[in-house]
Amino acid sequence: MFKLINTNSNYDFLRKKTIAMIFSLALIILSLGSFVTQGLNWGIDFSSGYIVQLKFNQDLDINNIRNNFIDNGVNDSVIQYFGSNQEIIIKLQEDSNFNEESINNFLINTLQDYSFEIIKLEFVGSQIGSELREKGEWAMLVAILSILIYIGFRFEFLYGIGAIIALIHDVLITLGIFSIFQLQFDLSVLSALLAVIGYSLNDTIVVYDRIRENSTLIHEEDFTKILNVSINQTLSRTIITSLTTLFVLTSLLILGGAAVQYFALAMIIGIFIGTYSSIYIASSSLSFLGVGNKSE
Q1: DSSP string, 176-242
Q2: 5 has pLDDT over 50
Q3: Contact 120, 169 (CB under 8 A)
Q4: Which pTM was predicted?
Q5: To pair with 252 at 20 to 30 A between CA atoms, which of 10, 153, 176, 294?
């Protein structure tokens, strides 16, 4: 079953390292261009809007509630159950259809076929969203710097630089895809990005550990060959881990509903990009940074 991805594989990954670097650079430039021209589609967590908690006298189908909002001109509502099938949380971005004075009437008109009670109605201002964005940026920066220090001590400084290059690559391209297609970016997506950083780092460390081990065991003048051997030796682990994780996330994307769909989508994109970067970017960067064979 696993013959195609066993440790005896001998693919020459590094032969395509220049093409891979050009491809990644093109994706990063495209992502940065999208950031400049249209930015991210911030969700209510990072912009401004309303969080509404409603309690009904009957069990609900969230899809029917969402369709009611769509029929009334609101296409980006986030709706999820809260404790039971009779209570829901609704997140609404600021919209021309309603404001702080008229949102109660808007809810009554939109859900006129239902009997419900408004348990909570909160307005999330743009200042709070700005603070959350800033804290999220700091969280990613601290994570990346901590990784640099950790890998620098565990391996050596150039390995740390290579890992950071791969992580920045993964984050930029994942964010770029969200920007290009204007997918909603909320706290769940930020959580997914931090998880992707950890996932990609774990994969990179496995490859780096094998590279370091082989660099002391294999007598080979061309360090690129050691990189290829190491990638091939860890290839089965990389593919199997990625596939099993993707199975879970795909199920979550299909069956988890709107509350987790962007989280699952961000994770799926991040895993594809992270697997690619572990094979090409993290390893190729060592070659470009001049890391050599320790057995020489």
Answers
A1: HHHHHTT-EE-HHHHHHHHHHHHHHHHHHHHHHHHHHHHHHH---S-HHHHHHHHHHHTHHHHHHHH
A2: no
A3: no
A4: 0.79
A5: 176
